[in-house]
Amino acid sequence: MNGLFLDFDGVLCDSVAEAYYSSYFFVYGTIPQSTSVPPEFRRLRSYIRNGEDFILLQEVMKKKLEIRNQKDFDAFRATKDSAYIANLQGKFLETRLLLLEEQPETWLTLNPLFPRIAEKLRALSRSENVFILSTKNEDLIGLILKHHKIDWPDSRIINALNRDKIKIIESHTSFEKSIFIDDQLDHLVWDNKKVICYLALWGYLDKNSVPNVPSLEYETFLETIESLAGS
């Protein structure tokens, strides 16, 4: 049997509105006047690596910094002390949990799944070889799935924050090989015979700089996800 590992944000869930809403509240101490995502925030979303980077996006927008590509954002991020970044991780999670407690319906609604994903996940919920692998907090993922009436086992939601996703997949030695789908290039490798990676083209990647690598269009993903799970 083979394994199937799916990233969450940008592959299963279109969470950019929640990310904007929560990070805005973190920075300004108030909720935004609109839940609509500013085009610039949506554009910059393609450069973030972990949840705390959403706070940095707010800073970029507030200071009107010029971020044209991943290299620019990484350079800006590198100006931040590692202790500051680590502190942001915990504080931003606390902010999300606070908003979830005080405004549960609003917060959860800001995390829609991509079209038809819910029915696909319901069909795969009992497939013990299918995992969600994400840097997002696993409890938040579980709550979002429950909001969409998906009964997904907690044991098959893996938190990869500050961990190497490929190594996590490789640790599942019972699989002959595994398929991994993510929209973040840095999480993917192309020379591993045990982990077959695909770039999710519908995700939060920079559409102007998509490399020639194994990839999936959204409709192809929907049509093949169940066969990938059974491969």
Could you characterize what this model shows?
- The chain is an alpha/beta fold and 231 residues long.
- It is 44% helix and 11% strand.
- It has a 6-stranded parallel β-sheet with strand order 3-2-1-4-5-6.
- Strand 2, helix 8 and strand 3 form a beta-alpha-beta unit.
- Helix 1 packs across helix 3 and helix 1 packs across helix 5.
- The mean pLDDT is 95.
Distance between the ends: 7 Å
Question: What profile does the largest beta sheet have?
Answer: 6 strands, parallel
The pLDDT mean sits at 95
Portion in strands: 5-15%
Gross geometry:
globular
Using only CA atoms, what is the Rg? 17 Å
Q: Helicity range of the residues?
A: 40-55%
The helix/strand class is alpha/beta
Number of helices: 10
**Total beta-strand segments:** 6
For the largest sheet, list the strands in their spatial order: 3-2-1-4-5-6
What is the H/E order? EHHHHHHHEHEHEEEH
Poorly predicted spans: none
Core attributes:
single chain, 231 residues, alpha/beta, six-stranded parallel beta sheet, 10 helices, globular
Task: Summarize the entry for a quick read.
With 231 residues, the chain is an alpha/beta fold. It contains ten helices and six strands; from the N terminus they run E-H-H-H-H-H-H-H-E-H-E-H-E-E-E-H. Strands 3-2-1-4-5-6 form a six-stranded parallel beta sheet.
Write the layout of secondary structure elements.
Layout: E1 3-6, H1 16-28, H2 39-44, H3 53-63, H4 70-77, H5 82-102, H6 104-109, H7 117-124, E2 130-134, H8 138-147, E3 157-159, H9 165-170, E4 178-182, E5 195-200, E6 215-216, H10 218-229
Parallel strand pairs: 1-2, 1-4, 2-3, 4-5, 5-6
Helix pairs in contact: 1-3, 1-5, 7-10
